Amino acid sequence: MEATKRGRVGSHHEASPTKLPYLPQEVITEILLRSHARSLGTFRCVSKPFHSLLSDPKFAKKHHDHNAVRLGHRRLILSFNKLFAVGLDSIRDSCEGIKDLTAVELDYPLKEDVDFLSEVYRKAQLKSNSDGIHSSEIYKKRWVRIFGCSNGLVCMANLLSLNDVFLYNPTTGESKRVPDLPESLRSKSNKTLFSYGFGFDSQTNDYKVVKFIDGNDNYVYSLKTDSWRRICNMPYKDVCFLTSVELNGAIHWISILRGGETTQKVVTAFDLTTEKFRVMSLPDLAEECEHIFQRSKVGILKGRLCVVYLCMKMHDVIWVMNEYGRESSWSKIRISVSYKRMIPLCSTKTNEEVILLLDGHLVLYNFERNTRRNLKIHGVEFDKSVGGNSYVESLISPNSYVIER
């Protein structure tokens, strides 16, 4: 009887719930700072204190800064017929342990427009085919243009009109439509060729969208004030609207300077703090290509400004500016693979290898060994028109952005 009682007492004691230890708020915050942004989005539902902390713009900025230093939680955003996010956690340096990557289709602004326009275009193609023969493959086109990524936010626009501009966080799904340029600021010029640049001004803690219009009209949008203003003119003739990159607190793109009857291609940099333009000469590209359709574009390779070709002819070189702002530091790197269109996306964690988007293929390239390996994306097939950018996952919201004071 006593044994039975003792057994029951012991069983009751073992079944009693264990009280969880108390964790100071500082410890909880440090744990959350090391967590994935995607997980933190669901943690907001745990309690009101969690929701308050994880919705705080100051915490979002601190979380991003922590992960940016560690070079962790990085993803690719690929634009084709729709937008896809691709995780990079399975990639290892030296081509070891590489797995097939998985692309996740994103729910983003303009997605309904993409479906509608693709269907309209497909029907128009079928109707215009007089012989009644058509491909059974659904027509795919990149209706969304990405103009830049900064601190986990993506600047994107409708490719057809380029007027519907959004700031979008692919991690949280939040987005904000950038207001149209006010009528009072619009130029009377009938120029329609324009482009955008996007970046973060660390001095004022502000995100800025820059609009360049062929014809010498330039404007900047401030997320802090949610407004546009005209900025100083730049004597360019044409802006390469295909790409711009953010580096060292400035947005860079390739433009053509006016000079009487002569023109000159240059790298133009827009300082996000001073809102002034700076021009840097390009390396001598003429010796490499005289093709009539030859164009070049800027990129970032291992933290350095670079120039690659966008051409109908095959090329096997990349130009890199070894010392930022020093025009004499341009150097040519010859690679072991030829390309017509290349986009440097990001480096691996040890900076040993670089992920390139090369003629529609994701390639892991080792510059020391001059070796390459194609990365496969499970379940999605792209073609040469695919575009790509890299970003660090963050909780930064374009709708509740508050300046840290």
Description of the molecule:
This protein is 17% helix and 40% strand. It is α+β, with helices and mostly antiparallel strands. It has one domain (62-392): Neuraminidase (6 Propeller), CATH 2.120.10. A six-stranded antiparallel β-sheet has the order 17-18-19-20-21-22, with no helix packed on it. A five-stranded mixed β-sheet has the order 23-3-2-1-24. Strands 12, 13, 14, 15 and 16 form a five-stranded antiparallel β-sheet that branches. β15 (262-271) and β16 form a beta hairpin. The protein is globular. Mean pLDDT is 76; it is low at 1-13 and 130-140.
How is this fold's topology laid out?
Blueprint: H1 2-15, H2 25-33, H3 37-43, H4 48-54, H5 57-70, E1 74-79, E2 83-87, E3 101-105, H6 111-128, E4 144-150, E5 153-158, E6 165-168, E7 175-177, E8 194-201, E9 206-213, E10 217-222, E11 227-230, E12 236-239, E13 245-247, E14 250-259, E15 262-271, E16 277-281, E17 295-301, E18 304-321, E19 330-347, E20 353-358, E21 361-366, E22 371-375, E23 377-378, E24 387-392
Parallel strand pairs: 3-23
Antiparallel strand pairs: 1-2, 1-24, 2-3, 4-5, 5-6, 6-7, 8-9, 9-10, 10-11, 12-14, 13-14, 14-15, 15-16, 17-18, 18-19, 19-20, 20-21, 21-22
